[in-house]
Specification:
By secondary structure, the protein is an alpha+beta fold. 52% of the residues lie in helices and 21% in strands. The longest helix has 42 residues.
């Protein structure tokens, strides 16, 4: 058996003759426990916040979205649609027409985007999960679904036949718009609101959903052109192969984005925040964990005579240093194991009972991930190993010679 390993284990469990060293050793292990527990809880909390912040993307954004590389629309014929639907891994494809629109209702106005969608859209996006009130619009009817914020700004409810919602978009052409020419300069459609959707504060005032044929008529867009395509993929579909096939069919003059790429700014911000949180908490944990350095140095000073004896028996200085390095590593492993167990219990209790709330009805979001366990374990072990390595260098030739 490795002599350094055997002695290190004996030192880990043996009590020191000096009570102060025993107390400091316990404090060092407790510091590792608290550091690892805190780091795991913080990472789990941030994972929960990340999931909570991005949950709307799973509801509101398609698996894949195709935009024109230049311009506002691109050609999409029936033959192209058949080819895309034949690609393995694609479940549903929805045609989209999107443009800015001016809303007017009883003298109140609001500028938003009209999003014309076809009959396949409810198969691509679960519209039932975003509907806040009443129904999705009927196909080929002058009906729309508006956001909750739009409804509040216009004081507009559903199925209000006493006064219809008016949609305005500028007619194609050039020249100045004079007040007397507004009727000629704008294309207008009067619609009834069939439902109200609710996703989040940013999106609840962004869109007015309408039938794609109504939107084409309002915007004067030909039937063979679309603003974008939204695609629902089958489970375990090969996204890379599907992208290649789509590029080939559409001539490569399109931009294809998955759900993360559609919200790249949000994900980049969350990733940067996660990195800074990890670094900040790791630095705090490092300060606590480096108590091990002081503990190991005190043990070395206490064991000076023993070190002299081991040296006389033929142990090299490297082997002696290994004893105290391993003792620090064992202390770290004990502390991180206890800390992770306590951290996991805390996260599971929060998931089950939500004892830490954001609001009375909303528990603080957390998420248990094995990746966070691995990150914490590696981080704490590296910090503990570094602290032990620094302390072990105190066992030097000079220390041995001083005992003569």
């Amino acid at each position: 058996m490795n002599v350094s390993l055997y002695i290190a284990k004996r030192y880990l469990f043996a009590k020191s003759n000096k009570n102060a060293v025993n107390i400091i050793s316990r404090i060092a292990i407790v510091a590792v426990v608290i550091g690892s527990m805190a780091l795991f809880i913080v990472l789990s909390g941030f994972s929960g916040l990340r999931e909570f912040s991005t949950q709307f993307t799973n509801i509101f954004d398609a698996d894949l979205k195709i935009f024109p590389e230049t311009g506002k629309t691109f050609i999409f014929t029936d033959s192209i649609e058949k080819k895309i639907n034949s690609i393995e891994g694609i479940n549903h494809v929805s045609k989209i027409i999107e443009e800015r629109v001016f809303l007017n209702f009883k003298g109140k106005s609001h500028i938003t985007f009209i999003k014309g969608v076809d009959k396949n859209y409810p198969s691509v996006i679960a519209v039932d999960s975003i509907l806040y009130l009443k129904n999705w619009f009927s196909e080929n009817e002058n009906e729309v679904v508006i956001g909750l914020n739009t409804s509040a700004k216009l004081s507009l409810g559903v199925y209000d036949y006493s006064s219809l919602l008016e949609l305005y978009v500028p007619k194609p052409g050039a020249g100045q718009l004079l007040e007397l020419d507004l009727a000629k300069a704008f294309q207008k459609e009067a619609v009834i609101v069939s439902g109200i959707y609710r996703v989040n504060e940013a999106l609840d005032g962004k869109y007015v959903f309408a039938d794609i044929n109504l939107t084409r008529r309002l915007l004067s867009i030909p039937e063979n052109r679309v603003s974008s395509l939204e695609i629902k993929l089958k489970p375990n579909a090969n996204e890379g192969a599907i992208r290649s096939n789509l590029k080939e069919i559409l001539g490569g003059k399109v931009v294809i984005k998955n759900r993360i790429q559609q919200n790249d700014a949000l994900y980049k911000m969350l990733n940067v925040e996660n990195l800074f949180v990890y670094i900040f908490v790791s630095l705090i944990a490092a300060i606590a964990i480096f108590n091990i350095t002081g503990t190991i140095i005190m043990v070395i000073l206490e064991k000076k005579r023993t070190i002299k004896t081991l040296s006389s028996l033929g142990m090299t200085i490297q082997e002696i240093r290994k004893i105290f390095f391993l003792k620090g590593v064992f202390m770290t492993l004990v502390g991180v194991s206890i800390g992770l167990v306590l951290g996991v219990i805390t996260i599971l209790l929060q998931l089950q009972y939500g004892f830490v709330p954001i609001t009375p009805s909303l528990p603080y979001p957390v998420k248990f991930e094995f990746l966070n366990l691995l990150i914490v374990f590696i981080t704490i072990c590296v910090l503990g190993g570094l602290a032990s390595k620094i302390a072990a260098t105190k066992a030097s030739e000079k220390l041995i010679s001083d005992q003569k």
